[in-house]
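Q: I'm teaching a short session on how sequence maps to structure, and I want students to see two examples side by side rather than one. Could you give me a first protein with its sequence written out and its structure tokens following it? Keep the formatting plain so it prints cleanly on a handout.
A: Of course. Example one:
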Amino acid sequence: MNMFGGLDTEAYDRKYTDRQLLQRIGRFLGVYRVKITAAFAALMLMAVASTAFPLLVAVVLDRLPVPPLLLLQLAATSLVIGVLMWGLNYWRARWFSELIGDVVLALRTEAFRAAAEHDLSFYDEFRSGRVISRITSDTQDFAQGLQLLGDILDDIAGVLVLLVVLLRLEWRLTLLVVVLTPFVFWMASAWRNFARGLTQRASRAMANVNAAIQEAVTGISVAKNFRQEAAVYSQFAAVNRASYDINWQRGFLLATVFPALNAMVGCGSALIIYAGGRAAGAGVITAGAWFLFLAAVERFWFPVSQLAAFWSQFQGGLAAAERVFALIDAEPAVRQTGARQLKLQGALEFSDVHFRYSRQEAVLRGFSLRIEPGESVALVGHTGAGKSSVIKLLARFYEFQSGSLHIDGHDVRSLELRSYRSQLGLVPQLPFLFAGSVADNIRYAYPQATDAEILAIAHQIGAGEWLDALPNGLDSEVGERGTRLSLGQRQLVALARVLVQHPPVFILDEATASIDPFTEAQIQTALELILERSTSIMIAHRLSTVRSANRIIVMAHGEIIEHGSHSQLLSNGGHYAELYQTYFRHQSADYTVPESTQAVPAQWVHKAPQHPAGI
């Protein structure tokens, strides 16, 4: 088994150059120019102040023996410099921390907005856990990269100030220091590309860990039902081990940078000590200047080595930014050619629509259907007939490959998507409820609905009797994903949500699970209220829903094979009649169990054991 087999890039990943990434990051930073300017000014003042102390010591050394008053002045100046450094560092750190927080907040918000706006086909192909990792872990890694950028700028400012001071002292020794500098960067560059590649793999490994956790927690009830806790644990252990292995390699690579750089810095410092000592002995420079050179060289080489070492980690921040920007820049599968604002009347027309989820998976083949405003249509057929695909295309969750879909005579691609979807009332097969109260979930599609309006809508369904089964009525908490409610209650909440919305077009993917007759009657009441005021297209699994439709569309293999009313299709004796006999007939009020099935098979009869007499 390939331990790193799951670390492949996603199909929407793209490669950005450092320049492209820095330009993109610069657009986020540009909004906060005032904070950047203030932090940079504090940074430069810190660099000047940190150089002042060794310069003063060098001046004092040139005046040996040192008068007591001069020593007091040096001590007092050092104290002032220390306090000034503390104050400047406080404000620099504060401004820069606020800047990083602002930028990461904006980036994470944009990444979440992009994730929320991606099509359903995007989530069919890519695991949601990996998307979550980009929004959370990668943005945090990017924040760390920005923090390192601040440290790098701090080091650069110190190096520039030191360079000016050294040039004024002795340009030949300064030139020797500068000549040795490229060797440090050359060594650091040897780690650069490899470190960035390892960092990207580490990010993908962490995305796999997040995806495994998300999937395990979401499906924990199924795992426990089938006693697969050990399998879930072993799968997590595998991806967690892969993350450990790749992060160990990355950590080891980064840990080897400092020892190598320190060795090179030591060689360079030894050379400077020898050359400076010779210059001081020959009288070219004073003893104070030599001390200043020794102190300044150490201060010069440390930022340079830090700069070279941090560059690899800064690449990690760029790699994280690259993954976040790839999520933001992922091309949508559903493409709108216009932004027409249209108040829907409910005329729907599919014309020769061909649709497939993949090249090998043709779902709809030349599908054509016209629905008049106010008409209700029920789609029936075996699993895989293409019923769900029809309503997904209508809701613009997916893009069809050819044909056309017109809404009130307008191409659906020409409509403004947000406005269009806001006029669709959709109830999926498994209604999703958000954690909160029943009232909060009913109000979800129409936030401005008042409590009185919600209560009135709830009482239109079975005179509100379904609320009596809830502990606190509309204020009852539904739990995560509505787990505190039964499936029938969740359907009632979803239908009440549509009633509050008053949509011109109603889309229903009816649940296949059986519910009790009382709840079914309440659901039917809610459906009838919606059907009276909306154009409706329903995937029907209950006979009551089928009969309530004005027209029934029978589908098979992505095509319409029959259409008509319930009585017409039954009398034709075609595919619908077979579906009725198989799925719907037992739901009819006049259905009776055939006599041939009323008798209990002999093998089902439990016979009492025959005991010997007297026992």
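Q: Perfect. Now a second example for contrast.
A: Example two:
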Amino acid sequence: MSKQGKRDFRPNIHFTPEKNWNNDPNGLIYIDGIWHLYYQCNPNNVVWGPMHWGHAISKDLIHWEHLPIALYPDEIGTMYSGSMAYDENNTSGFAKYGEKPMVAVYTAHNMETGLEQQCIAYSLDQGKHFEKYYGNPVIKNPGTPDFRDPRVFWNDKKDCWSLVLASGDHAEFYASQDLKNWKKTGEFGVGVNKVPTVWECTDLIRAKTGNEFDGFKWILIVSMIHPGTEGRANIQYFVGDFDGDTFQCTEITDEPLWIDFGFDNYAGVTYGNYDRPVYLGWGVNPLYANFVPTGEYSGLMTLPRELSLCETDEGYRLKTKPFGIDEYRAGAFPIGNQKPLLTESFGLLVQGNFGRIALKNSRGEEVVIEVTVDSITVDRSKSGNLSYFEDVDPKLFKKEDLLVSTTKRYMRGNVNMEIIFDVSYLEIYADGGLETASVCVYPDAPYQVVSTDGDLEVKMYTIKNRDMLFWRFYKNDEKRDYRPKIHFSPEEGWMNDPNGMVYVDGVYHFFYQKYPYDTSWGPMHWGHATSRDLIHWEHQPIALYPDELGFIFSGSAVYDTQNSSEYGTNENPPIIAIYTSHHKDGLEQQSIAYSNDKGRHFEKSYLNPVIQKPGISDF
């Protein structure tokens, strides 16, 4: 498991979870000035486990506000990776009152059988709460053991939604008019891929080439773990064209093209609904991510990176450059060959022919970057704590293969390089981003000196950690002068009928009819509060939101101590909510939802409605 190191390794400007485990970035979407980051997380442990979708938002991709879990496991499976569609024209039909739905397209992974299928969920409140579609799965498994990680995008060529997903050792493409009904349109990879292994986290992007006669090309990105003699987890890319149905590779190479020659950049994908491709990757190698010495949390994201293509002597190659840090870079100043460090977060701008740059501390620990006319090497063999390698099955990789890495340069001669170091994470962008490396290091004491030698000129800029940016989407400053002291009242918005009152393990649960967005009656939700004496109440998040069956009208709740519903276990019995779904056309039917965490979060049953209307108007 993730171990407590000798000090705090949490970076300052790279995203990390508040606590516990995170891995792949999911559902990256930019809407109205807000960058949404959903991500694979296990909220109950610092190691990999049943996957949920965590959620954070930012205005600059550097400072993040953590939000509640967006997607929880359900009876179809745990929440594996996926992406987000911003359905501005309501092609899905999920919008009810002019909202613009955010539709998550994700893989449900059954932990018992391994079955992987594609599902959707939608949000009508700027991505804070999601309702799962009752018609899930929307793409059933065709008989493939590994069938996951859908990346959805609007297809201008066919005027429809398309997605690409990983299916065994290749990618498959699907199309839909409404995000609910999908048809397969093509495949790519068989006979082209030179690395025989399972594909993951595919992404398809359109990128600028810098050539006025050939202004754009398409890039297919694929993550893959290839243990054995090379022992790497890396991201391959293909350059080519997309005809609206499938991808064709036009840059045929003898060797695979890798996004990163470092060790710690995996499962990366790009943001949707933005005017150019901006990339985030999981910043830890999955081969040893369970064992890193970061203590209360495990996992981080790379810095955001803008992607483009550059024409080289060998053909078009991917370029990456850090996105959103210009304000730091503007303060760069020249340094000598032995520069003391007063911060653990800084950048270096390097120019010259050849040389060596080392970050060192007084314990003899160092991480080294060496540049020659035709290669770049990063060496972390003496960088600090390497004990996490000892916990990994040696059949997966050789330790020495993940300590030193060298890549050839596409631009020979003078080097132009940017190095960014952030407490325990190193990023290298060389030759305009044609060669990029991402590396975790865990020095027992902070690096204290930047040492340089050779024919290199180096400038340094410091990265100051500003206060986190926080804001609220909904705010009501109206003062309420008549609130009772010992009678229950909601924190804000409207309430009416008490619902689902149940007593569990010394706690009184009070669910109630609630409209959270106004102080008059509206589309009904179930609010939630808890108490130990029925006088003093603790307000909880909303328990049930409206969905395609209707508003959440009144009902009741039971504590299923015998687990007769089979929604929980005998050791952890579920709370079952039984409620009326009231459709806007007046149809009323009875539905159920279940909670496996003592009422904090409910999942609706895919069997809903469990009692259909018998032919009377009020039911």
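Q: What should students look for in example two?
A: Point them to this: Residues 466-480 have pLDDT under 50 and may be disordered. Also worth mentioning: Residues 281 and 551 are 38 Å apart (CA to CA).
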